[in-house]
Design a protein that fits this description.
- The complex is a heterodimer of chains A (about 325) and B (about 290).
- In chain A, about 75% of the residues lie in helices and about 0% in strands.
- Chain A is mainly α.
- Chain A is globular, with a radius of gyration of 20 Å.
- Chain B is globular.
- In chain B, strands 1-2 form a two-stranded antiparallel ribbon.
- Classes of the chains: A mainly alpha (about 325), B mainly alpha (about 290).
- At the A-B interface, helix 5, helix 11 and helix 13 of A face helix 4, helix 9 and helix 11 of B.
Chain lengths: ~325, ~290
């Protein structure tokens, strides 16, 4: 009971700090980095629901990021519909797309599932590149700048974008928290451990996988809309960028796959590293960031497959178990 | 009309030979070690850069540099198996997928840092030569690449079916536990499998160099082709991968001819998705471990 009260206390302190952060830190460079951390944590959390708990290792989540981004942008530019509504619409489009994509990809397991998800995201990018009728082809388009228009998800200060991203992350974490503690969470972990065994004891694996894919793709699409509104630009290469798919999986694995806070911790580590690298080396040399990311990923896989969360909980147990040892000499 | 189709088929078969070298490597690693090597394309890229630098620094013909690129990549393959892949072999998918994936990212971005994103080409005396057969023409560089690729594939088949080591590899592919009981050292067999697979990727790189540009992302083109070919041709099956690769080459070439210049990849994805939709059982190894 005290443990629960303690974690609630920490959570409250954490939320207060995060809300106060943009009021204290005024540098727009720093806030930009915070927004990136919040956004990629959120994408990681969305990926982790399916990739972490159910171990369906997708490298195609850019498909839903892009669909979310394009749906809201098309609705906004062609029909004047607010991106707040477009965001939900994008989520629904992503969910609808996840049904046939899941139908195809879930026939495969292990590495071939991963390859199939890469192929679907790339195929979607090619479609948006090639067919100029319903989007803008390879050139993409800029989002008209309306100045301060909160109803159109456009703000004067970066701090406002920060709060939107924070809201998304809290939503993602809350959903993960609820799922983790529900029957669905246990089914997901069972599927992740051994799908055949899970089915043998009566878990309807295809249905559970479909449902979690729906939730995961919906959340990823929200991130796509937000990102497009934040950078005021969209084209197939950014919206369906393979790097989005990579980063979603990477932050979760480095932070701790299948844990609530893993994606957040992973993103903080990777984004901080990348920012430090850029300030040391400048952004002139291509490939530095991903070189370092891939080295971190390899190190985690070879030495700490449970990720940073595993290291933290190990350290915590060692710390906790020292106390009674001192009490009984 | 018939000449156009015949010409497209010839072009497809010639490039399909290169796809075959890459996919045979992927399928060999999958068959023996039971992992999918996401970095196979990056080893083709390394082979290309080896040939490029040997050619630009010492004027060595890319086809001659085959005798450098293949052994170098064989050694890299043994090292990759011994120091990286050996440590993640087990029932868990995640480390296996993301280890070779991380390796692919690492090699690609190292190349980007060291060699920049520029396209590097080697111009040889036979780069522009072509044989004429009536209306049809066959580029000499691609023909040489195709012939060497087929010869190497044939040599691999002979190796797998006649030598003790080759038989040991096929035994380990069929049943690792029983093969170990028969006195086969699995790690040694795996090292050789990785070595051979990477040497084939290196050969593909050298053979490509007279008519294709080297750049850091070049491997991605070939590895996607290889994955589709390996899925089509049943996992772990060398002959299947070879035939499927030639088919892929022809399909891509016909797609370029009749749908549009940039539709090659669309054809590839369409073939992958059709395979998944209608013949997922042909993916045997993807379902069972």
């Amino acid at each position: 009971m005290t443990g629960r009260a303690q974690s609630l206390l920490w959570l409250t302190i954490g939320i207060i700090v995060l809300i106060a952060l943009p009021m204290v830190v005024k540098s727009s460079f720093a806030i930009d980095i915070f927004i990136r951390i919040l956004l990629f944590s959120f994408i990681g959390v969305a990926w982790n629901l399916m990739g972490g708990y159910a171990k369906q290792l997708s490298l195609g989540h850019a498909a839903y990021f892009g669909l979310g981004a394009y749906t809201s942008t098309i609705l906004q530019i062609n029909y004047g519909i607010s991106p707040w509504i477009g965001m939900i619409a994008g989520g629904v489009v992503a969910m609808l797309a996840s049904l046939p994509i899941g139908w195809l990809c879930f026939r495969l397991r292990g590495p071939y599932f991963t390859i199939a998800t890469i192929a679907t995201a790339q195929a979607l990018m090619l479609i948006f590149l090639k067919f100029r009728d319903f989007a803008w082809g390879a050139e993409g388009t800029t989002i008209p700048n309306l100045g301060s228009a909160p109803l159109m998800m456009q703000f004067e200060t970066k701090a406002s974008y920060y709060y939107v991203a924070l809201g998304l992350l809290v939503l993602g974490l809350a959903i993960t928290y609820l799922i983790e503690r529900s029957w669905m969470g246990y089914y997901l972990v069972a599927i992740g451990e051994d799908e055949d065994a899970a089915e043998a004891i009566g878990v309807n694996a295809p249905k559970i996988k479909r449902d979690i894919y729906l939730i995961s793709s919906f959340l990823t699409a929200l991130a796509g809309t937000f990102y497009t509104q934040y950078i005021y630009f969209i084209d197939p290469a950014t919206a369906f960028s393979f790097n989005i798919s990579i980063e979603a999986a990477l932050v979760s694995i480095v932070g701790g796959i299948g844990t609530l806070w893993g994606p957040v911790i992973g993103t903080v580590l990777l984004e901080t590293t990348s920012t430090l690298l850029q300030s040391w080396l400048g952004s002139s040399i291509g490939g530095v960031q991903l070189t370092v990311y891939s080295l971190i990923l390899m190190a985690v896989i070879l030495w700490r497959p449970t990720g940073l969360m595993g290291m933290i909980s190990e350290a915590w147990h060692r710390f906790a178990s020292r106390k009674p040892a001192r009490a009984t000499p | 009309m018939w000449e156009t189709i015949a010409q497209a088929v010839i072009n497809g078969l010639l490039i399909g030979g290169i796809y075959a070298l890459v996919s045979i490597g992927v399928t060999l690693i999958f068959g023996v070690v039971k992992i999918v090597n996401f970095a196979q394309g990056e080893f083709v890229m390394i082979g290309m850069y080896i040939s490029f630098f040997l050619s630009s620094q010492f004027g060595i013909d890319p086809l001659v540099s085959l005798i450098v690129s293949m052994p170098v990549l064989f050694v890299i393959g043994v090292l990759v198996q011994h120091f990286l892949i050996r440590r993640v072999l087990g029932p868990n998918d995640m480390p296996q997928i993301f280890l070779t994936f991380a390796l692919s990212l690492l090699l690609l971005n190292l190349a980007l840092m060291l060699f920049s994103a520029n396209y590097r080409t080697v111009h040889t005396s036979y780069s522009d030569e072509a044989l004429h057969l009536g209306e049809l023409y066959i580029p000499v560089a691609k023909l040489i690449a195709f012939v060497v690729a087929m010869a190497l594939s044939g040599a691999l088949w002979v190796f797998l079916h006649t030598t003790d080591l080759g038989k040991a590899m096929r035994a380990a592919a069929q049943n690792r536990d029983v093969a170990t009981l028969m006195g086969i050292n699995p790690n040694r067999v795996f090292c050789v499998a990785l070595g051979i697979a990477l040497a084939l990727a290196g050969a593909a790189g050298s053979l490509l160099m007279p008519f294709y540009s080297a750049y850091p992302f070049v491997g991605q083109v070939f590895v996607l082709m290889a994955f589709v070919a390996v899925v089509l041709g049943t996992l772990g099956n060398v002959i299947g991968a070879l035939v499927a690769s030639l088919m892929m080459g022809v399909a891509e070439s016909l797609g370029i001819q009749f749908v549009g210049a940039d539709s090659g990849l669309i054809v590839v994805f369409a073939m992958l998705l059709l395979t998944l939709a209608f013949k997922p059982t042909g993916l045997g190894g993807g379902r069972a471990r």
